[in-house]
Design a protein that fits this description.
Layout lengths: L5 E5 L5 H10 L5 E5 L11 H17 L4 E4 L2 H6 L1 H7 L4 E2 L2 H9 L6 E6 L1 H6 L1 H9 L4 E6 L3 H6 L6 H16 L4 E4 L8 H7 L4 E4 H15 L11 E5 L3 H12 L6 E2 L4
Parallel strand pairs: 1-2, 1-3, 2-9, 3-4, 5-6, 5-7, 7-8, 9-10
Helix pairs in contact: 1-11, 5-7, 5-11, 9-10
Length: 263
């Protein structure tokens, strides 16, 4: 038995989709969530800066004695995940590989779309991994930089969101793809608008896929908590009142985030 918490972190609110999946997959586990809302968006920043941010969050969580970390951020997972694994001696779980594997398990998939931040799309990691495992698959990737600000401002359900989603995905509306990987953990919060735009396309939620992998990995390493006691903590580097309000809407949980400061 290991009752230490699991760290989950993202540039902002998007990683809360991983929290929702976490509660379903690992209901008896403690977690500490960090949303770096003061420095969002990550997807438009250079990789050295993103690497620094990831390292600072991991150092913070390490001081909290976490037993594993879930990097619930597509940008970090696409660009600096190996750096974090090399530096920190705990399991560090990304959201890219589980999303790719979930997509490849689908039957009769020939054309796959990937939507993500600019940094994730530039990394080319999703097309590379998909093609490595299935040479016959066709992959098209699009950056959707306005999606994250919409969600961070609590506008995911606003009519303008549907218009913006349609503008980004218009090509696939005319020429539908078989599956669409939501390559940023924020994007499942726009699933309704995306599904309305692409009704015949299977959506891949990388957060849900990642928690399936995390559950198996922790069990294999004997890191699961077998007691009935667990804790849930939230931290935000930005406006905690705004974070709490939106986090409660997303998770349905009581969220009372503490402020975290970076050196």
């Amino acid at each position: 038995m290991d009752n230490r918490p699991i760290g989950i972190f993202d540039s902002g609110l998007g990683g809360l989709t991983a929290v929702n999946a976490f509660v379903k997959s690992l209901p008896g586990e403690s977690f500490i969530y960090v949303g770096d809302t003061a420095r969002i968006p990550y997807g438009e920043k250079d990789i050295d800066t993103v690497r620094l941010y990831g390292r600072q969050i991991m150092q913070f969580l390490q001081k909290k004695n976490i037993k594993a970390a879930i990097v619930a951020c597509g940008t970090l997972s696409s660009n600096v995940i190996q750096d974090l694994r090399d530096e920190f001696n705990i399991p560090v779980i990304d959201v890219v590989n589980p999303g790719v594997d979930a997509c490849l398990r689908l039957p009769n998939i020939k054309r796959v779309g990937v939507i993500a931040t600019e940094a994730t799309v530039k990394s080319g990691v999703f097309p590379r991994l998909l093609k490595e495992k299935n040479l016959n698959i066709k992959v098209e990737a699009k950056a959707c930089p306005l999606f994250v600000p919409l969600i961070e401002e609590g506008l995911a359900a606003h009519p303008m969101s549907r218009c913006i989603v349609e503008a980004y995905l218009a090509d696939w509306q005319k020429n539908p793809i078989d599956a669409l990987i939501l390559g940023c953990t924020h994007y499942p919060l726009l699933s309704s608008a995306i599904k309305n735009t692409l009704p015949d396309t299977v959506l891949i939620d990388i957060s849900a896929a990642t928690l399936e992998v995390a559950s198996k990995k922790l069990k294999k390493k004997s890191l699961l908590n077998n007691s009935e006691e667990f804790t849930r903590e939230f931290y935000s580097s930005g406006d905690t009142n705004k974070f709490n309000q939106l986090a409660r809407q997303i998770t349905g949980m009581h969220v009372d985030a503490k402020k975290v400061f970076w050196n």
